[in-house]
Amino acid sequence: MTEPRQTRAAGETVPWLSYGVAGVKVVFILAVFRLLAGPFTEDILGEELLPMPTWEWSVCSVTPAVLLWLARRPADWGALSGERMFLRIALTFYLLYALAFALFQGEWILWLGVAAGLGGLAGIQYLDRGESAHDH
Length: 136
Known about the structure:
Elements: H1 15-45, H2 55-70, H3 74-79, H4 84-104, H5 110-135
Helix pairs in contact: 1-2, 2-4, 2-5, 4-5
């Protein structure tokens, strides 16, 4: 059996949380690189070797939402105070790309990315409200 997650004292970060944030950052950097790789290869080589992202974008857009779900406890969410802006930026970026390509290119799989982006941004708002209510 696995042991439950343990939360450290106030002010200390939870060990798994830093790995989760690092994972979200790496996935975001890879997603941006993947997005730019198609046009880059077309400019350099004269043909697009990689099409624009579709299903992999939906997978990438789920990673911040998973981190938010795992860090939903007040102590864990408080430990993410320095990373919240990055999470908002990543979720907004995923949401805008997925929405644009789902609407204008007809890529139905990107609607999952739209849902993940909206769900993640809603999760941030919910956890922020819960934290402010918890502080009072």
